[in-house]
């Protein structure tokens, strides 16, 4: 009989992978981005910076001023409020790290058939869920505001795939938290040798 922690482990692992993908977004991994704007060239924005279509990228740093002047737009979203919003995007890697801890607790819960480890997986997954929800809310606020301001200037802009990866991670963490919490109420063997059940 599979461990009651198995389904929670699976969902937490899926969320961790998605959050890792988001955490290494542009300019580290150019195919994962939060916003794509097109003026004379395409520019993609990620957690750590931005990349222009020609291959030129900003240096990877936390808290940058989203700007399209690099591609001839003569328009900068460099207000301190928006720059501070990009600093708060560190919540994505933090949520990924919390999901990693949930995965490790889940692995221990599966391997050791431990109720305590399954409960700890549920609690850690809940913390990762909270961090992911806050990160997603900030993503929507930041990138929709910037997208609309860019569109108001007559340029093209659209939300990127990193937003949807975050939605997937939030959904997986909701399922992981719930299944781990329900699994912690399941039946566990007292040992791997098949002792008494309680």
From TrEMBL:
Its localization reads: Membrane
Q: Which domain of life is it from?
A: Eukaryota
The record, for InterPro entries, names: pH-response_reg_palI/RIM9, SUR7/Rim9-like_fungi
Instruction: List the Pfam families hit by this protein, alphabetically.
Output: SUR7 (PF06687)
For whether the record's keyword set contains Cell inner membrane, the answer is no
Q: Which GO terms describe its cellular component?
A: cell division site; growing cell tip; plasma membrane
Where do the TM regions start and end? 6-29, 90-113, 119-146
Keywords (alphabetical) are:
Membrane, Transmembrane, Transmembrane helix
Membrane topology, as annotated: Multi-pass membrane protein
**Chief subcellular location:** membrane
- PANTHER family (alphabetical): PROTEIN DCV1-RELATED
Query: What is this protein's record name?
Result: Pali-domain-containing protein
- Organism, per UniProt? Filobasidium floriforme
What lineage does the source organism belong to? Eukaryota, Fungi, Dikarya, Basidiomycota, Agaricomycotina
């Amino acid at each position: 009989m599979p461990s009651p922690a198995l389904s929670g482990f699976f969902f937490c692992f899926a969320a961790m992978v998605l959050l890792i993908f988001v955490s290494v977004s542009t300019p580290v991994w150019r195919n994962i981005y939060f916003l794509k704007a097109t003026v004379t060239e395409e520019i993609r924005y990620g957690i750590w910076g931005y990349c222009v279509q020609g291959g030129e990228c900003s240096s990877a740093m936390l808290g940058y001023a989203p700007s399209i002047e690099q591609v001839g737009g003569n328009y900068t979203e460099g207000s301190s409020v928006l720059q501070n919003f990009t600093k708060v995007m560190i919540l994505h890697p933090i949520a990924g790290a919390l999901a990693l801890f949930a995965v490790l607790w889940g692995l221990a819960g599966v391997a050791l058939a431990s109720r305590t480890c399954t409960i700890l997986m549920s609690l850690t997954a809940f913390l990762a869920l909270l961090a992911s929800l806050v990160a997603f809310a900030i993503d929507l606020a930041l990138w929709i505001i910037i997208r609309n301001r860019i569109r108001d200037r007559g340029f093209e802009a659209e939300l990127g795939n990193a937003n949807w990866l975050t939605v997937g991670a939030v959904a997986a963490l909701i399922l992981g938290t719930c299944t781990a919490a329900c699994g912690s109420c399941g039946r566990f063997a007292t040992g791997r040798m098949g002792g008494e059940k309680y």
